[in-house]
Amino acid sequence: MDVWSWLILAAIAVVLIFSFVIMFGAPYLPTLKARTPEALDLLDLKKGQVLLELGSGDGRILREAARRGIKAVGWELNPLLVLYAKAINWRYRRQVTVKWGNYWRHSWPQADGIYVFLLNPYMAKLDKKITQEIRGKVKVVSFAFQIPGKKPLKELNGLMLYEYHQKPGR
Length: 170
Ligand SMILES: C[S@@+](CC[C@H](N)C(=O)[O-])C[C@H]1O[C@@H](n2cnc3c(N)ncnc32)[C@H](O)[C@@H]1O
Known about the structure:
The protein is α/β, with parallel strands linked by helices. The chain has helices spanning 3-20, 35-43, 60-67, 79-88, 123-133; strands at 50-54, 71-76, 96-100, 113-116, 137-143, 154-156, 159-165. Helix 2 (35-43) crosses helix 3. The N and C termini lie far apart (59 Å). Bound molecules: S-adenosylmethionine (SAM). S-adenosylmethionine (SAM) binds next to helix 3 and strand 2.
């Protein structure tokens, strides 16, 4: 095969990798740069606390969290984005973990805050999964899409802050 054939094959592989994700969740669309610090401001996590990002994309939210001294864990299904996010967060590698996998199928690490940018059809499933997974109190910021049946505590430029409390004894 010549170089062009290899390049075309590589391009098809990239398109397929970005497309197969839509069977499991939202396609890749990064949070706007201006919203990234606002999302962290809204979560208001303290140094040493843990942020979980579901579908961590290119890792920009993880990086902003790490800059603030927050430990950040991202789940991402697209292996190319996992590699990219690991690379750009290399200097924060002690604070940032990017896991390759489907966040619906795994248990989540205990976190103080969760960030999501999903799609409307997944918001009810997210609400259920948060209720199953969390212990204690967790703040959740969702960009663009509301959690059905829950009123945001605060809203800022399309970012919505929610709080979940796990009742003792569960
Ligand atoms: C709308 S993008 C948001 C990216 C990033 N959170 C941001 O705000 O910049 C959604 C991301 O979730 C990933 N994703 C979708 N479904 C997923 C799943 N079930 N498990 C892990 N990652 C998923 C996609 O590959 C994509 O990178």
